[in-house]
């Protein structure tokens, strides 16, 4: 199973080589892997920013605990969860589903009403928490795709989301920075690249009931 070997190869890269850049072809594969991620109801309630601009990343570095990955990696990927999910979001999804699967949109009305009733029960904080959790599924696919392509990645929660929202103008777009990742190629100077993975034993992590 190549996936296991790829996951053994990857690690949270602490120092990137700023001279090595990800090809456009590989970047498109990573984007497709993220787009194919599972999401609740299939709504994909998030937007993914892929930031290459060096000046913008310099602005974000101080509110990312000063970490060098922010400016040295090929790209900074910011997963932004939608802060509101309402009838318009659901109707847009149903139209896409009908068009993609060649269905009559009227036949999806019951499913749409079900989603609207369930999501309508959630308050604003619950909506934000729910949509933020969806971004981590996309992050997982990003990490797996990068590992297969032998592209290094570092998932990061060490940043100030409110500052990201301000710098990137996310709030007015109904978005909020949820989790970030840097992708590129490891530096030979990264002292963590040869460290053994530290994981709980399988027997301790899993219980079969």
List the helices and strands in order. HHEHHEHHHEHEH
Mean pLDDT: 98
Proportion in β-strands: 5-15%
The CATH topology name of the domain at 2-85 and 130-188 reads NADH Oxidase
Number of strands: 4
User: For this structure, what is the CATH homologous superfamily of the domain at 2-85 and 130-188?
Assistant: NADH Oxidase
SS field, number of helical segments: 9
Query: Using only CA atoms, what is the Rg?
Result: 19 Å
Task: Supply the CATH class of the domain at 2-85 and 130-188.
Answer: Alpha Beta
The main sheet comes to: 4 strands, antiparallel
Approximate helicity band: 40-55%
* Distance N to C terminus: 26 Å
- Low-confidence segments, ≥5 residues, pLDDT <50? none
**Overall spatial form:** globular
Structural class: alpha+beta
**CATH architecture of the domain at 2-85 and 130-188, please?**
3-Layer(aba) Sandwich
Arrangement of strands in the largest sheet: 1-2-4-3
Family: Belongs to the nitroreductase family.
Cofactor: FMN
Organism: Aquimarina algiphila
Pfam family, one: Nitroreductase
Structure description:
The structure is a single chain. The protein is an alpha+beta fold and about 210 residues long. It has a domain at about 1-85 and about 130-190: NADH Oxidase (3-Layer(aba) Sandwich). It contains nine helices and four strands; from the N terminus they run H-H-E-H-H-E-H-H-H-E-H-E-H. It has helices at about 1-10, 25-35, 55-60, 70, 85-100, 110-120, 125-150, 160-165, 200-205; strands spanning about 45-50, 75-80, 150-155, 175-185. A four-stranded antiparallel β-sheet has the order 1-2-4-3, sandwiched between helices. Helix 2 (about 25-35) packs across helix 7 (about 125-150) and helix 5 packs antiparallel against helix 6. The longest helix is centred in the middle third of the chain and has 26 residues, at about 125-150. It is globular and about 60 Å long. The mean pLDDT is about 100. It comes from Aquimarina algiphila. It holds the Pfam family Nitroreductase. This is NAD(P)H-dependent oxidoreductase.
């Amino acid at each position: 199973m190549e996936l296991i070997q790829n996951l053994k190869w990857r690690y949270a890269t602490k120092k990137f080589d700023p001279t090595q850049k990800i090809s456009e072809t590989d970047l498109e594969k990573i984007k497709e892997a993220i787009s194919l991620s599972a999401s609740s109801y299939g709504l994909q309630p998030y937007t993914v920013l892929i930031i290459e601009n060096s000046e913008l990343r310099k602005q974000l570095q101080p509110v990312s605990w000063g970490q060098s990955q922010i400016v040295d990696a090929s790209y900074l990927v910011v997963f932004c969860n939608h802060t509101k999910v309402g009838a318009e979001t659901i109707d847009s999804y149903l139209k896409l589903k009908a068009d993609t699967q060649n269905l009559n949109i009227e036949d999806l009305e019951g499913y749409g009403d079900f989603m609207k009733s369930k999501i309508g029960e959630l308050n604003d904080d619950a909506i934000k928490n729910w949509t933020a959790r969806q971004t981590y599924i996309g992050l997982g696919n990003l990490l797996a795709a990068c590992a297969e392509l032998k592209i290094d990645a570092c998932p990061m929660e060490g940043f100030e989301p409110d500052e990201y929202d301000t710098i990137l103008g996310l709030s007015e777009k109904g978005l909020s920075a949820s989790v970030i990742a840097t992708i590129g190629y490891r530096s030979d100077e990264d002292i963590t690249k040869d460290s053994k993975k530290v994981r709980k034993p399988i027997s301790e992590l899993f219980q079969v009931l």
